[in-house]
TrEMBL record:
Catalytic reaction equation(s): L-serine + acetyl-CoA = O-acetyl-L-serine + CoA
Lineage: Bacteria, Pseudomonadati, Pseudomonadota, Alphaproteobacteria, Rhodobacterales
Protein EC: 2.3.1.30
Gene3D superfamilies assigned to the protein according to its UniProt record, in alphabetical order: Hexapeptide repeat proteins, serine acetyltransferase, domain 1
Pathway this chain belongs to: Amino-acid biosynthesis; L-cysteine biosynthesis; L-cysteine from L-serine: step 1/2
CDD domains, per the entry: LbH_SAT
Protein name, as recorded: Serine acetyltransferase
Family of the protein in this entry: Belongs to the transferase hexapeptide repeat family.
Top EC category: transferase
Organism: Psychromarinibacter sediminicola
């Protein structure tokens, strides 16, 4: 048994740590034993846990947990990148959110993480041509988590959405890897054009609370969008923009704004 345990830790350290933390959580708070066992310890892989959590959260009188779990299991089995992205997201939340002290927290409690994982299942369905099911997932994610991500939007890995209330990401939006955003962020359009009409957020960007990035524009890699800003024009890489409409107010101030999570403008103290 010890040898098997070591092998799991070597092959999948994120899942191994989640299981260790789950076992400790049951010891620390026995009243959560049923939740922790059904959500984590009863499953052999992180992918099975994710399928269970997604289906449990999104189930309703319109579609049962069993059907949703079959859909999610199919997605995770067919596309290994979904599980890889989830692992990167967990690590991102742990590293960037000072309120996150264990890997198990996003999986059990953080709606930003859970909403993104449910979106990823819907995105997989979209690319299978199963658009109506993808729209159903989008609807339920919006109803349950207050996060509205179109299933056609492209979202990278290592994503951290803090608090995650009132997030909107439009159909043609593209979000790169290692992006962080806070609540009430909108990646929206400016009209009814049919083609690319939503922003591209390159890797390493930090978007502050309440910011709106609108239209077919690009926020360059490792840039910072200040809270409450309305961005209507391209943002050069490694820049900080602020205001309504947003203007460049300086450099980003660090190599990885999305990781440092420093939301002060240059010169602030």
């Amino acid at each position: 048994m010890a040898e098997t345990r070591t092998n799991i830790a070597e092959v999948d350290p994120v899942w191994s740590r989640i299981r260790d933390e789950a076992k400790q959580a049951v010891i620390d708070e026995p009243l959560l034993g049923g939740l922790v066992h059904s959500s984590i310890l009863h499953h052999a892989t992180l992918e099975r846990t994710l399928a269970y959590r997604v289906s449990l959260k999104l189930a309703s009188g319109e579609m049962s947990e069993q059907i949703l779990r079959e859909i999610a299991d199919e997605a995770y089995s067919a596309e290994p990148k979904l599980g890889q992205a989830a692992r990167a997201d967990i690590v991102a939340v742990y590293e960037r959110d000072p309120a996150c002290h264990r890997f198990v927290q996003p999986l059990l409690y953080f709606k930003g993480f859970q909403a993104v994982q449910a979106y990823r299942v819907g995105h997989w369905l979209w690319h299978q041509g199963r658009h109506d099911l993808a729209y159903f997932i989008q609807m339920r994610v919006s109803e349950v988590f207050g996060v509205d991500i179109h299933p056609a939007a492209v979202v990278g890995q290592g994503i951290m959405i803090d608090h995650a209330h009132s997030i909107v990401i439009g159909e043609t939006a593209v979000v790169g890897d290692n992006v962080s955003m806070l609540h009430s962020v909108t990646l929206g359009g400016t009209g009814k054009e049919e083609q690319k009409r939503h922003p591209t957020i390159e890797s390493g960007v930090l978007i502050g609370a309440g910011a709106e990035v609108l239209g077919n524009i690009t926020v360059g890699h490792c840039s910072k969008v200040a809270a409450g800003s309305v961005v209507l024009k391209d943002v050069p890489p490694k820049s900080t923009v602020a205001g309504v409409p947003a203007k460049i107010v300086g450099e980003a101030g660090c190599d990885q704004p999305s990781v440092m999570m420093d939301q002060l403008l240059n010169g602030d103290s």
